[in-house]
């Protein structure tokens, strides 16, 4: 079967992507028990050394973990003649958050590390606050790093975070992926992300800060038992006495990470044979080719396709995913919505399209990316132009769009170039008219490896 066999995108990229991730996907970093500065520096160096040439960006909350990361990264960079920057996201959710961001900036000034603050103002009071804050943090830090051409972002997750996350997900009934260890080396949309502290205990890092005479901020929510992580953190003290301490839990999480890699490889093999990527950023799953695959692999394939179409690196909840796939495979639901997508059973195929009501709002063309996967690939964007959904209004201006052989439902969520309410170009619905105006905008979705199987 040719490389692009059943799709319009080179699906073999999946395999290469998975091979590149193997070295960190299930690996457990050595646990460092001592708090000596040299031992800590030696522990983080192997991960930091993986960063490519260029500036490293420390995600600095001002708490103990990220502050220790700042010091250790600063020492590493000085020894190698590298540059580091720090960025703090002020969520504005507590009265003291601005002061904590300012304190982080003052520490950076003392250490000679350039620092910036990015404020989040997008909380509308609806939905899951912690999830919204996490997504905003990732978006703001990622944009800061990309704007500066950074080689990698550094995150301060520790061995304790690994253990707490494992317990929280175990309580939620998570499967292999949820229980798998955080990766020491991963990526946010091709932006490398490193977690140098995964083999270190939180207490050792705070001992290091005290020895260096460096203070840190304590988020009051870290002591608030209303938050699940705080309760699980307290439970760890009891579990440690029973032999289930952070080190042992991290070992189990690492084993789950290795299992995850094996499952991802099997899913990648099935994807090459059973997925077809359409020109409107949609996907078709051939049920005749997936029927003999184990249920776990079919679920992973479905989740990966949904994530790619939605431009969302996070998977749907397992229970929702299982119900949807079961209904579609059985033909019990001709169509349903999930994860910002429309999924329809048509014959022996499941068609997955972006849900028009779920697309992102228009953004300035200079922003470079819209709806998680459509990208501007040039420079010098007209500041008066935006990228947004074509929608019904734009489609009505596209003349005989039916000649393209694409469904209206699929076209509504495709990208269009707008100047105010004037349609400038529609590269999917009307490519021949868009050629000149849209020449520098990719009309193809981002590569599969950005979200599939992540």
Automatic annotation (TrEMBL):
Compartment(s) where it occurs, according to its Swiss-Prot or TrEMBL record: Cytoplasm
Domain of life: Bacteria
Keywords: ATP-binding, Cytoplasm, Ligase, Nucleotide-binding, tRNA processing
Binding site for ATP: 61-66
Transmembrane region(s): none
Catalytic activity: cytidine(34) in tRNA(Ile2) + L-lysine + ATP = lysidine(34) in tRNA(Ile2) + AMP + diphosphate + H(+)
GO cellular component, one term: cytoplasm
Broad EC category: ligase
InterPro entries from the UniProt entry: Rossmann-like_a/b/a_fold (IPR014729), TilS/TtcA_N (IPR011063), tRNA_Ile_lys_synt (IPR012094), tRNA_Ile_lys_synt_N (IPR012795)
GO molecular function: ATP binding; tRNA(Ile)-lysidine synthase activity
Function statement: Ligates lysine onto the cytidine present at position 34 of the AUA codon-specific tRNA(Ile) that contains the anticodon CAU, in an ATP-dependent manner. Cytidine is converted to lysidine, thus changing the amino acid specificity of the tRNA from methionine to isoleucine.
Similarity remark: Belongs to the tRNA(Ile)-lysidine synthase family.
Protein name: tRNA(Ile)-lysidine synthase
Organism: Rhodovulum sulfidophilum
Species classification: Bacteria, Pseudomonadati, Pseudomonadota, Alphaproteobacteria, Rhodobacterales
Gene label: tilS
């Amino acid at each position: 079967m040719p490389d692009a066999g059943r799709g319009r995108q080179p699906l073999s990229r999946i395999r290469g992507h998975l091979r590149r991730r193997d070295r960190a996907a299930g690996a457990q970093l050595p646990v460092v028990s001592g708090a000596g500065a040299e031992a800590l520096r030696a522990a983080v160096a192997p991960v930091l050394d993986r960063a490519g040439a260029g500036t490293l960006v420390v995600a600095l909350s001002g708490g103990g973990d990220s502050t220790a990361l700042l010091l250790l990264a600063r020492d590493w960079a000085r020894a190698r003649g590298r540059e580091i920057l720090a960025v703090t996201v002020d969520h504005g959710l507590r009265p003291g958050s601005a002061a904590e961001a300012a304190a982080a900036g003052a520490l950076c000034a003392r250490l000679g590390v350039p620092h910036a603050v990015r404020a989040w103002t997008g909380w509308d009071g609806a939905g899951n606050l912690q999830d919204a804050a996490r997504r905003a943090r990732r978006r703001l830090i990622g944009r800061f790093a990309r704007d500066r051409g950074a080689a990698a972002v550094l995150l301060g997750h520790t061995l304790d975070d690994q253990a707490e996350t494992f317990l929280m997900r175990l309580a939620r009934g998570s499967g292999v992926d949820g229980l798998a260890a955080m990766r020491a080396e991963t990526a946010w949309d091709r932006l490398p992300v490193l977690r140098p502290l995964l083999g270190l205990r939180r207490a050792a890092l705070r001992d290091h800060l005290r020895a260096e005479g460096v203070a840190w901020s304590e988020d009051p929510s870290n002591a608030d038992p209303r938050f699940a992580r705080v309760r699980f953190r307290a439970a760890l003290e009891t579990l440690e006495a029973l032999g289930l301490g952070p080190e042992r839990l991290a070992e189990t999480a690492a084993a789950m990470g290795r299992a995850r890699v094996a499952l991802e490889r099997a899913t990648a093999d099935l994807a090459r044979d059973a997925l077809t990527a359409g020109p409107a950023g949609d996907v078709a799953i051939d049920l005749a080719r997936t029927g003999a695959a184990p249920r776990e692999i079919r679920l992973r394939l479905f989740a990966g396709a949904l994530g790619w179409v939605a431009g969302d690196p996070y998977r749907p909840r397992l229970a929702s995913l299982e119900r949807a796939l079961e209904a579609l495979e059985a033909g019990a639901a001709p169509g349903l919505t999930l994860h910002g997508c429309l999924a329809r059973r048509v014959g022996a195929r499941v068609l997955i399209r972006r849900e028009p009501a779920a697309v992102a709002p228009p953004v300035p063309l200079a922003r470079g990316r819209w709806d998680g996967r459509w990208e501007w690939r040039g420079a010098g964007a007209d500041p008066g132009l935006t990228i947004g959904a074509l929608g019904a209004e734009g489609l009505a201006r596209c003349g005989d769009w039916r000649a393209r052989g694409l469904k209206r439902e699929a076209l509504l969520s495709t990208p269009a170039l707008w100047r105010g309410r004037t349609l400038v170009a529609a590269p999917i619905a009307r490519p021949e008219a868009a050629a000149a105006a849209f020449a520098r905008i990719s009309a193809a979705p981002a590569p599969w490896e950005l979200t599939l199987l992540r």
